[in-house]
Amino acid sequence: MQNAFILALVVSAFILALVLAYRMFQSWIFHKEKDWAFQLKAENNKALSSLRLTACERVIIMLERITPTSLVMRQNVSGKTAGALQLELIKSIREEFELNVSLQMYVSEPTWNSVRAAKDEVIELVRIAFTKVTPDSPAMELSREIFLLEAQTNNGTIKAALAAIRREIESRY
Question: pLDDT value at position 50?
Fold first, then answer.
């Protein structure tokens, strides 16, 4: 009887030791998985941070390229009509935006909305300048009107978009 009691005690202790070992192993695996997940997330964030920074740089370049002065200076205005120049400028703005539209996934929605507003304002500025000349007038007249309007608006929405990007960079990096 005493042997049976000792055997039951030993078996119980053995089972308890197995249960404790199993629970400790389970706890160790749980913490290891959390550690691996944290390391993986940290590595992904590091890679994503580089992509975000590059995207912000490209958005800044796009905004600089769609400023009215920059747009007009890149066009050959000699021998063109105002109507042809207007079409080319709007086409350039849209192409520049479409080439960079995928960058919106790397910036916040409010920042991207400010970039889109800047693009829309530049297109509107070109259209308003075009209403001040005749379609057959020389492209230089349209250029002059664009420069005058740009001086009046001071590229406000472009500056606002640039500021939004800078704030985003400062808050993330």
Answer: 82
Indicate whether 63 pLDDT > 90. yes
Return the structure tokens found at 66: 């769609």
- Contact present, 63 and 161 (Cβ < 8 Å): yes
Q: Quick: pLDDT tens for 121-173.
A: 999 999 999 999 999 999 999 999 999 999 999 999 999 999 999 998 888 76
Q: What is the pTM of this model?
A: 0.74
**Contacts by 77-82, CB closer than 8 A, 24 or more apart:** 77/138, 77/139, 77/140, 77/143, 78/139, 80/138, 80/139, 81/135, 81/136, 81/137, 81/138, 81/139, 82/130, 82/133, 82/134, 82/135, 82/136, 82/137, 82/138, 82/139, 82/141, 82/142
Helix axes 2-65, 82-99, angle to 10 degrees: 170
Strand partners, 138: 81
Judge contact between 69 and 18, C-beta under 8 A. no
Helix (H, G, I), strand (E, B) or coil at 81: strand
